[in-house]
Design goal:
The protein is of the alpha+beta class. About 20% of the residues lie in helices and about 10% in strands. Bound molecules: iron/sulfur cluster (2 copies).
């Protein structure tokens, strides 16, 4: 299991989640529109969920249906 960052992060990218993640699994780069969670490293601590000002982060199983594709989008950023 993992947590996933969805559409609300796009163009916000304020890094609030990065600051609270205990395993440093949230990353992005200047060319990416959002941050992503590495599913191989996330320990599901949930600390990032409440830290996000735009509620962009969900447990993978709780992703709203309209953002289901973000599970794959997060994985792809890390080359799976
Ligand atoms: S749930 Fe915890 S481990 Fe996973 S990305 Fe969020 S802060 Fe990091
Ligand atoms: S806290 Fe939310 S908006 Fe900010 S970078 Fe993380 S996911 Fe994106």
């Amino acid at each position: 299991m993992t947590h996933v960052i969805a559409q609300p992060c796009i163009n916000v990218k304020d890094k609030a989640c990065v600051d609270v993640c205990p395993v440093d699994c949230i990353h992005s780069d200047d060319n990416s529109p959002q941050f992503y969670i590495n599913p191989n490293d996330c320990i599901d601590c949930t600390l990032c969920v409440d830290a996000c000002p735009v509620r962009a982060i969900f447990a993978e199983e709780d992703l709203p249906p309209e953002w289901a594709q973000y599970s794959e989008i997060n994985k792809v950023h890390f080359g799976k």
